[in-house]
């Protein structure tokens, strides 16, 4: 049995962490399977949106602490496998939907935050638990929490290590929607399907712009918007969207 499963339904790929007996904890082999799966769907032209979820009762509880040897050179472990996971999701030119089915802890929280849209089951929970084992946030957790919560609240979440509920995560703005557990998987696929049915180039360029928005000065971001708008306007999707609007029908994207 593989530690990461990939299934496809139409233009939607679902990537599932599949170590339910370990609460989908990440050891070296699982991380490399996940990197491979994410890179595979990223370049698959038949895939236009991705769902990331976990098997069993957890989404992902982060680093497998039983793999103590991986923390002897933690800088290499993070740089060599955790960072590529977060970067692959961020750079993927298609939307990624997190379906947080259970606990998202440590790097598992990072995986959820790396996704573009995030759904959570009512039973899901979240914790930035690095400090409980004398470690610091990684997998992009610092980047996302500070930008989405502000410094003071992000620092409290990181250092106090309190577990918070799906409803609290939604109130913080970290989760888009909270659902009954039995509706989560279908709702995530439906949402990903809606994205997959949209104008893929426009969505890819929008994702690129929004990821850059926190880093670029206004002048550079305006230039990026102009460049991307030129690309989008030259694509057949724009002509189709314009025509469909004039004809009062749903567009048929390329």
Automatic annotation (TrEMBL):
CDD domains: crotonase-like (cd06558). PROSITE patterns: ENOYL_COA_HYDRATASE (PS00166). Residues 232-254 are annotated as: Disordered. Pfam families: ECH_1. InterPro entries: ClpP/crotonase-like_dom_sf (IPR029045), Enoyl-CoA_hyd/isom_CS (IPR018376), Enoyl-CoA_hydra/iso (IPR001753), Enoyl-CoA_hydra_C (IPR014748). GO terms for molecular function: catalytic activity. It comes from the Bacteria. Belongs to the enoyl-CoA hydratase/isomerase family. This is Short chain enoyl-CoA hydratase /Enoyl-CoA hydratase. It comes from Blastococcus haudaquaticus.
């Amino acid at each position: 049995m593989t530690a990461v499963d990939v299934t496809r339904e139409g233009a939607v790929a679902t990537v599932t962490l599949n170590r339910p007996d370990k609460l989908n904890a990440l050891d070296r082999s699982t991380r490399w399977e996940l990197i491979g799966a994410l890179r595979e769907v990223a370049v698959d032209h038949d895939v236009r949106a991705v769902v990331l979820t976990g098997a069993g009762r957890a989404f992902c509880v982060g680093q497998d602490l039983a793999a103590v040897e991986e923390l002897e050179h933690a800088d290499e472990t993070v740089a060599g496998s955790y960072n590529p996971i977060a970067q692959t999701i961020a750079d993927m030119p298609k939307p990624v939907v997190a379906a947080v089915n259970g606990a998202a802890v440590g790097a598992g929280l990072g995986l959820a935050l790396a996704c573009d849209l995030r759904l959570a089951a009512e039973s899901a929970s979240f914790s930035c638990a690095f400090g409980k084992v004398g470690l610091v946030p990684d997998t992009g957790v610092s980047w996302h929490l500070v930008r989405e919560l502000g410094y003071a609240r992000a620092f409290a979440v990181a250092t106090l290590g309190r577990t918070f509920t799906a409803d609290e995560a939604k109130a913080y703005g970290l989760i888009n929607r909270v659902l009954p557990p039995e509706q989560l998987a279908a709702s995530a696929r439906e949402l990903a399907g809606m994205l997959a049915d949209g104008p893929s180039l426009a969505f890819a360029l929008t994702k690129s712009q929004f990821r850059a928005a926190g880093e670029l000065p206004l002048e550079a971001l305006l230039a990026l918007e102009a460049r991307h708008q030129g690309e989008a306007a030259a694509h057949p999707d724009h002509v189709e969207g314009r025509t469909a609007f004039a004809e009062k029908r749903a567009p048929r994207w390329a």
